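Below is how a single chain appears once it has passed through the pipeline. First comes the sequence as given, then the structure the pipeline wrote out for it. We keep one example in the README because the format questions we get most often are answered faster by looking than by reading.
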Amino acid sequence: MKAKVIEEAGPNTKVELGDIVRDSVTGFEGIVEGITLWRFGCRRIQVRPTKLKDDGTLHEMQVFDEPALHIIKRANVPIKVQAERTRRGGPKDARAERLAMSRN
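Resulting structure:
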């Protein structure tokens, strides 16, 4: 029995890490392990399967375009982790960082 779709991905809905999703074309179902953003705005979602093959081996992860996915279950992500996701990495301006630290 297939799980009920709670939300379809679209322009106003974003798949998040840890969500359980199903591809509308292949029926592949699993947990979102990675999200990449491509040059022209295409979000590609890497999905790890939740079930084993008939012979007991693992399926490989698959990558899908976000609009093709249906959200089966939203991830239960603590607020602290959600806040960490909004931080951006990369080089920092040392002067601006020192100034921000001195204000605290």
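The mean pLDDT is 79.

See the next section for the split statistics.
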